[in-house]
Amino acid sequence: MARGDRGAFDELYRRTSPWLAVRLRRRCADEQIVAEVMQETYLAVWRAAGAFAGSAVGGTAVGWLWTIAARRLVDAFRRRAHHAEPPVAAAERAVVPAAEEEALAGTVGGDVGDALRQLAPELREVLRATVLDGLSIRETAVLLRLPEGTVKTRARRARIAMREALT
User: Quick one: fold of 97-167?
Assistant: First the structure.
């Protein structure tokens, strides 16, 4: 892709677009926003493929892709906030564990897994956005439609609860 290979881009899109769409829908129920974010994300990936530095995101193109998509989603929420109410999060429509939560539960066992499962849902959501998704406090606040102070407080409460559970 970095050399402009359209076939490489098509393969990346074929392999990652279903996963990315599902993950975005877990954060946003508005299909129009999801479609816009998908388009903006892959356009950004195509344009910046030569700048990809695997070591900066743990070495994975998928991590880099999600970071771009998550930031584009936050940007979309900011744009829409000026015109209408933010879209309803998909998590508010249905109570189904996210794929990353299931994967995390399957890979994080023992005391850490138990401590994660014991966290209140609102604390887990903040941890997921800040740790798994790598978002800043401000981006997490926009994404979860919470004041920044609330996100900071929940992140701190989650860290304290995890520390207490693990000691």
Answer: Arc Repressor Mutant, subunit A (1.10.10)
